Every structure is written in C-alpha cells, then in structure tokens.
Amino acid sequence: MATPLDMGPRVFPRIPETFEHRGYERLSIRPCTPTIGAEIDAFDLGADHDDDTWSELRQALLEWKVLFFRDQDIDRDGHRRFAEHWGSLEQHPFYKYVHPDQSDVDVVRLAKDAVTGGHENEWHTDITWSATPSMGAVLRAVEVPDVGGDTLWADAGAAYDGLSDEVKARIDTLSAVHDWRFSFGLTMPEDAVEMLSEPFPAVEHPVVRVHPETGRRTIFVNPIFTQHIVGVEAQESAALLETLYRQMTRAEFQVRFRWTPGAVAFWDNRATQHYASSDYHPQPRVMDRISIAGDRPFGSATIA
After folding, report:
1. Is 85 noted as a catalytic residue in this protein?
2. Residue 240: which H helix or E strand, with range?
3. Which of 175, 194, 155 is nearest to 273 (CA)?
4. What is the mean pLDDT of each run of 10 residues along the chain (304 residues)?
5. What sign has the CA pseudo-torsion 159, 161, 164, 167?
C-alpha cells in the first residue's frame, strides 16, 4: 500500500507571538523568504552606527536569522570590528591542526581551489560539540566562483514548528550526544585527537533548544556532530534523528544565497543550520569567517 506524500502548505510564523517587534526606522530590509533571510540594503558594515541602529540590527537578526550585506568594502580588521560588536570572538581550537598555515586565530580562511575543493556540504550548526556553541558567525566573500558555491541556511524554529505533535512530544525533553572526533578528528593526526579529547570531550545538548532571546523552540541536532539520543534505544534514536535531519531539508524552511564579491552574511547559529554547496570545483572560493562565542544551550525541561 502506498504511503501518502507529505504535501501541502508549510507556513509558520517568522517569530513567536511573544517577541516584541518595534519596527525599523534605520534599516532597509528586503526579505528573501517568508521566514528566514533578509538583505539589508545600503548598509556600511565599516561605518560607525548609533545605538538605535545596532538595536534594529539585532532585532533583524532575531527576526530573520541570517542577514545579507552586499558590496562591502571592508578588510579583515573591519570584518573583526563588526563581529566584535556582538560578543567575544571565538578561536577555533582545531584549525591549527587542520590548517597549520593559518596564523590569524580569530579569522578562519576557508580557501578552496582546484586541489582542495569544498567539503562543508552537509547540514550543520557550528561547533555543537562544544559545551557553549557559537552564538553566530560573520562570513565575508573574498573570492567567489562565477557560478556555484552558494550557501543555504535553514530555519530550525520553523522546522520544529512543522513537526507532528507526536514527534514534538517525543523529543521535547530528550538530549543528544555531540562529538567532534567523528568529523574534525578524521582529518587530524592521531596524537592531536588524543591530546584534545580530554579538554573537548563529547557533550550533551537538548534535542530541542530554546532560543535564549526569542524563546522559540528549535531543532538542535545535525548529522555532522550529533552521535545519538541519550536514553533511547539505538534504532529509535537513529529513526528520530533521521526524521529531524530530513525536516531540515524542506525547501520551505530554507534560504539560498548567491555570493558576489564583497558580500557578507551574518547568521544566528542558535536558530539555524547551514550548508555550503560544493558545486564549483575546480573554481576557487575563498571566504573569511569569524565566529562569535555563545552560551550553554537549554531546552524546555529547564524552563518548565
């Protein structure tokens, strides 16, 4: 007997009803989709802005989850100054092993060429193997291919809202194990993996994270770092994770950004997952990324 296709409208709120929205007077916002992604027109990331403008920009980030700025004439120092406005910058502890030629600890250069090619083409939230995953990241295009190399972001809150009530009830209070050794660790020397395993052990995070600023529930597992759900038989754990991974791939929850020279993306790592399309080889693609330190995730059980 054929299984009915899961078709039909997938329309969910962009922000929770409890979110206090004050409108925009200083920003020109062009939505990319109904729930996620907006381009901010005529905004200079390198300029000085008043407190009201920064406040509107934070509201826009919380509302749209990823903001895009085109034609930005900033260097690494300007990139860093913009990122520092949102919190402490995060130094990735593993890149010196994966990319030993990189000396700038704050700025990670993601350089792909005819030899290396792209390998970030899997849905993920950054650094969930840490007890305090990144709050967000600012990605700046240095060199982009003529076509291809787009980045996609998925709205983890809308994706959660789109789950069935039965699945929500099952996962709301569960936690999952996240571990870097089965991703970054595969490209590192064995002695480095052993040395870093003690300061960076596997961690548990809620399967459903509550956003600390908006209060929205979001899916917080990903196929790169999540290993299994705690306290659940292996077969059910795998089935639940597959359901959640598949949910994040729904086009209605996503935005796709085509990079242009000087473009910058700023995303909320607490509310999204992202995927870098690896369809441009052997053309080069060079990006600079700065991560902003975050806090410890909490789930609905913590606030119940």
Report:
1. no
2. helix 234-248
3. 155
4. 70 90 94 98 95 97 98 95 95 66 71 82 92 97 96 98 97 94 72 79 96 97 96 97 97 98 97 96 94 95 63
5. positive
- How many CB atoms lie under 10 A from the CB of residue 281? 17
Burial of 267 (0-12, 13-18, 19+ CB in 10 A): buried
What pLDDT score does 99 carry? Answer: 60
What pLDDT does 98 receive? 59
Nearest to 152 by CA among 15, 297, 278: 278
pTM: 0.93
Q: DSSP state, 124?
A: B
Q: Is 124 assigned a catalytic role?
A: yes
Q: Which of 79, 216, 285, 289 is catalytic?
A: 289
Contacts of 219 (CB under 8 A, 6+ apart): 156, 159, 160, 207, 208, 209, 244, 247, 248, 273
What tokens appear for 280 in the block? Answer: 């441009």
pLDDT of 1 reads 44
Exactly one of 124, 140, 217, 285 is catalytic; name it.
Answer: 124
For residue 8, what pLDDT is reported? 85
- 178 is annotated as an active-site residue: no
- Name the CATH superfamily housing domain 28-303: Clavaminate synthase-like (3.60.130.10)
- The CA angle 31-34-35, to the nearest 5 degrees, is 95
Q: How far is CA 296 from CA 80, 218, 274, 299, in A?
A: 24, 14, 20, 10
Beta partners for residue 226, in sequence order:
178
Cis peptide before 282 (omega within 30 of 0): yes
Indicate which residue of 79, 126, 209, 285 is catalytic: 126
Q: Are 66 and 35 in contact (CB under 8 A)?
A: no
Catalytic residue check, 49: no
* Domain range list for the chain: 28-303
Query: Residue 141 corresponds to which tokens in the numbers above?
Result: 């295009």
User: CA-to-CA distance for 54 and 61, rounded, in angstroms?
Assistant: 11
